[in-house]
Amino acid sequence: MGNVQRPEYDSTPSPSVEEPDWMSNLDDKTSLAELSIVGTNHSVGLTGGDAVQTQAWTLDKQLRAGVRAIDIHVRHHYDDLVIYVGNVSQSQTYKEVEDTCIEFLKENPSEFILLSVQKDIEELEPHARTYYNEIKFRADQQAMYYWKNSGMPTVGQVRGRIVLIGNLACGIPGQYIISSPEISCPTLFQLQSSWNAQKQHLSQRFPKSNVRNTIVSASSPGVFPYSAARNLNEWFMNDMALFEMPLGLIWFNFPGTALINKIIRLNSFCKN
């Protein structure tokens, strides 16, 4: 993979620019459905080699760079939620991700963090709580740092909080989210045609009450995450002027700081 730092792609250990409090310029009355927000796919996928690794920056560095949507895939292991990328454990738990998010929010109370938690496989080990109840338990334990309602909130309602995404204990339910098709890429030669489907999704106009959800990342046995990201991130940045606004949630592997900042600036219309 190597250490490569480009405007749209970055596999170096640290971002070149930080945007820790960019949400301070958003109007409190703005609906989250009106925003364009950078997310990272498999956000703590830092280990496992080139075939598995999805990010180069730690979660704290991603948040400081301006990323505000986090994605983790978990397996339930003896009343803990352990994070995996494929079959590779990332040696991190839901609680560790939660702790990092809370510390960031304490330092930057103007911000909020969207958190997507996906169940990786059926659990094999015994546990006292179901996956759903485990998430609810964590949110109840740190209630002041979660948005405990359900629906589509405004910025002012969620500052300083974690907002769960999907059909979980609270947060933004799946009915508000319109997702793109997954990118299929058995080989790099087929990546362009899959990107064309993502472009179509990004160019469509959706109801104002819904959030567009677009995954701009891919991997397969024949295509490593970083190889796909080098192409997809560049194509996304080059084609941004063609897309319908707002962009909603856009999930990347190895995003560069110029790409992140360009998406952040799309929210300038929301400033007080």
TrEMBL record:
<dbReference type="GO" id="GO:0006629">
    <property type="term" value="P:lipid metabolic process"/>
</dbReference>
<dbReference type="GO" id="GO:0008081">
    <property type="term" value="F:phosphoric diester hydrolase activity"/>
</dbReference>
<dbReference type="InterPro" id="IPR051057">
    <property type="entry name" value="PI-PLC_domain"/>
</dbReference>
<dbReference type="InterPro" id="IPR000909">
    <property type="entry name" value="PLipase_C_PInositol-sp_X_dom"/>
</dbReference>
<protein>
    <recommendedName>
        <fullName>Phosphatidylinositol-specific phospholipase C X domain-containing protein</fullName>
    </recommendedName>
</protein>
<dbReference type="Pfam" id="PF00388">
    <property type="entry name" value="PI-PLC-X"/>
</dbReference>
<feature type="region of interest" description="Disordered">
    <location>
        <begin position="1"/>
        <end position="21"/>
    </location>
</feature>
<feature type="domain" description="Phosphatidylinositol-specific phospholipase C X">
    <location>
        <begin position="52"/>
        <end position="165"/>
    </location>
</feature>
<dbReference type="InterPro" id="IPR017946">
    <property type="entry name" value="PLC-like_Pdiesterase_TIM-brl"/>
</dbReference>
